[in-house]
Amino acid sequence: MRTAVSENEQQSEGRARRNRRVGIVVSAKGEKTIVVAVERMVQHPVYRKTIRRTSRFLVHDEKGAHAGDTVRIVETRPLSKRKRWRVEEILTTTGRARAAAPAANV
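The structure assignment produced for this chain is given below.
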């Protein structure tokens, strides 16, 4: 006897959901690699004070993000020794990134 399987359960059997994070580009010096800082808040186990913790990820960038941009990153297969994330979308850009582009009317 076979039971009906919902659509959500079928998707979860194929591939696990990919982790997504939002962070700020700290460095964009590589050709296709950027460094993204993701902040999270944790509570101190003894003093119960909320502490800000920052994780830095090496991220594959095909979209052309610049330092200071806010980006959404998604977990992916290993691309190099330390690179396991890629840029899914650039959420906000900085004025400095737009100023670095050449002007069309000059």
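Interim note for the steering committee: The chain has one domain: 18-98. The two ends are 74 Å apart (CA to CA).
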